[in-house]
């Protein structure tokens, strides 16, 4: 009986540790009864009548559909913010193009990335960067989200991961060529 009252006491557990308390008979433990008159009230929308109803068992109706997504900000500072939609996507797209172009040119000519850039590759790099950046920014400034255009296999998350791997691949290619002292292939 003493053990039951010790375990039933509300003072037994404090902060996840057992606390030594007085042994109180279980008749002194307050009983928890439900209040049948408990009502839930909410603020009514403008023009709606306020109602109060008693709490009932949860209904089996499906939850309401979520509200439409809020309009996306098209401000320059929001689009190009550190956690905004543009920086990682643009860098990833440039890295994907750059990695494929670097490997393709290396296979065709046998030159490493540094030689490709020094032999006239800088204007191509700058031109491609400007065109792809503008092509990526224009829809974002018009309010089009990347998630709205992603379906099936070509999702926005897949593009992010491909861009991340391309960035790592391009850095690994340049670092390997630097350590090796020449082209990878």
From TrEMBL:
<keyword id="KW-0934">Plastid</keyword>
<feature type="compositionally biased region" description="Basic and acidic residues">
    <location>
        <begin position="43"/>
        <end position="52"/>
    </location>
</feature>
<dbReference type="InterPro" id="IPR022796">
    <property type="entry name" value="Chloroa_b-bind"/>
</dbReference>
<feature type="region of interest" description="Disordered">
    <location>
        <begin position="43"/>
        <end position="70"/>
    </location>
</feature>
<protein>
    <recommendedName>
        <fullName>Early light-induced protein</fullName>
    </recommendedName>
</protein>
<keyword id="KW-1133">Transmembrane helix</keyword>
<keyword id="KW-0812">Transmembrane</keyword>
<keyword id="KW-0793">Thylakoid</keyword>
<keyword id="KW-0150">Chloroplast</keyword>
<dbReference type="Pfam" id="PF00504">
    <property type="entry name" value="Chloroa_b-bind"/>
</dbReference>
<keyword id="KW-0472">Membrane</keyword>
<comment type="similarity">
    <text>Belongs to the ELIP/psbS family.</text>
</comment>
<dbReference type="GO" id="GO:0009535">
    <property type="term" value="C:chloroplast thylakoid membrane"/>
</dbReference>
